[in-house]
Design goal:
It contains five helices and seven strands, in the order βαααβββαβαββ. It is α+β, with helices and mostly antiparallel strands and 163 residues long. β2 (56-63) and β3 form a beta hairpin.
Length: 163
Amino acid sequence: MRHVDLRAVEDDDLDAIFGMMRDRDAAEMVAFGAEDPDDRDAFDEWMSRRRASDEVDLLVVTEDGGFAGTAASFAVGADREVSFWLARHAWGRGVATEALRLLVAREPERPLFGRVAAHNAGAIAVFERNGFTELSRAPMHAPALGREIDEIVYVLTPALDGV
């Protein structure tokens, strides 16, 4: 049985995160990643801003203690959003579903939102397994693809008991 956990990003994680985000198949699925995933300087600046922000909770997803990806919650205006990105070796085994469950448990604010490319069936399933429902769908520019795609916005509403 695998053990999935979340922990703070450390400096030693940056190479693994950069490598994960450079995976062309992953960038195609995520679609809203960097326009130039090979630009290490831009990546380092982006990570530095996120790590320094009080509005962002940026975490490493671990599987059995090893790097498996990232998960984050962050402010977009008055709303809180969540996102996740898994390394290829962690795809298809429930790691993302468990990582999002752990992230949602850490994030008290509701409603909670998530965005996903409409062609990313795996991420759609992860959101839905964690109780998110589709709120809207609209064409958006996807920097990693250089074209418009449909983006789905998911929402996790408060439970009847207020949680």
